[in-house]
């Protein structure tokens, strides 16, 4: 039986010689500091600190040494491996920091650079508002009626009981097309669509017509030669002012919020009798007229109510002009400014941005498609 080889000379086990361990250690340290990125360091770790690294293999030889030599050899190899492990950890930390900094620098996005991406278009806020109004009337069973913006004088005025002497027929308010004897105007109101609706349909008639209208107004913060109205007309048996009031209250609450109703003030329109101006309850102060901190409400200027449009019971003369028997049918009609409604809904002081086509204005009202 052979016992441990007492004569075994560790100096003869080459991988465990001090010089050799030192050489392996230095080679490993050189490789560690030469690793230029995390990938390279991974390879170095495998090669110089892995299970098959020269020092790991040398470590295995220790068992073959005589007991008195093992301790020293073990320390030598252990120390060398410790130093290498430490160097790898340090290099790893340094490379990670470097990597992160490089990524931050490389991936910086200059948000101020011009883009080649096309901006999405925006639908015009007035288009959206018109559609909203149309939708809420369609939900009540109304039809959307349309008429031309270049309209016959007769439909814009005469059929609506606006006699030739009515002030609205003077050259001041109306854009006339040439030649004048053709009696064609740019419609000054959406009301001619009432006449068209009655001339082309048999009662019962329930129509709304949002559309553009034209007047020779100066262009300023509250006037424009082109603006938008929505017209409503109902012709049926037994229609009264009460139906009109209920309809407009519903319209107001749908457009401005729950609990927002309307009030009527006596007025005159040639095409309705009786006629009323409609005010809508201020949806900010809800009719109190009070603003913040003792001031009056800014939206309605302390009135509690905002002027919204005109309305009334359709004048029997209009029914007759449009071929409807006033002994059988009655009706109501109303007309509101869409731009005005939009302005006070959004607290706009100036209506001009509505007509100037800046897409940023349209986008600001959340109208991206
Ligand atoms: N057409 C009127 C205007 O432009 C508004 C109007 C008032 C329309 C009363 C109506 C109505 O249908 O009944 O001032």
Automatic annotation (TrEMBL):
Residues 135-353 form the Aminoacyl-transfer RNA synthetases class-II family profile domain. InterPro entries: aa-tRNA-synth_II, aa-tRNA-synth_II/BPL/LPL, Phe-tRNA-synth_IIc_asu, Phe-tRNA_ligase_II_N, Phe_tRNA_ligase_alpha1_bac, Phenylalanyl-tRNA_Synthase, tRNA-bd_arm. The keyword Nucleotide-binding applies. It comes from the Bacteria. The keyword Metal-binding applies. Binds 2 magnesium ions per tetramer. It catalyses: tRNA(Phe) + L-phenylalanine + ATP = L-phenylalanyl-tRNA(Phe) + AMP + diphosphate + H(+). Its cofactor is Mg(2+). Gene3D superfamilies: Bira Bifunctional Protein, Domain 2. It is found in: Cytoplasm. One of its GO terms (molecular function) is magnesium ion binding. PROSITE patterns: AA_TRNA_LIGASE_II. Mg(2+) binds at residue 273. GO terms for cellular component: cytoplasm. Keywords: Aminoacyl-tRNA synthetase, ATP-binding, Cytoplasm, Ligase, Magnesium, Metal-binding, Nucleotide-binding, Protein biosynthesis. Its EC number is 6.1.1.20. One of its GO terms (biological process) is phenylalanyl-tRNA aminoacylation. Belongs to the class-II aminoacyl-tRNA synthetase family. Phe-tRNA synthetase alpha subunit type 1 subfamily. NCBIfam families: pheS (TIGR00468). Tetramer of two alpha and two beta subunits. This is Phenylalanine--tRNA ligase alpha subunit. It comes from Nocardioides seonyuensis. The lineage of its organism: Bacteria, Bacillati, Actinomycetota, Actinomycetes, Propionibacteriales. The gene is pheS.
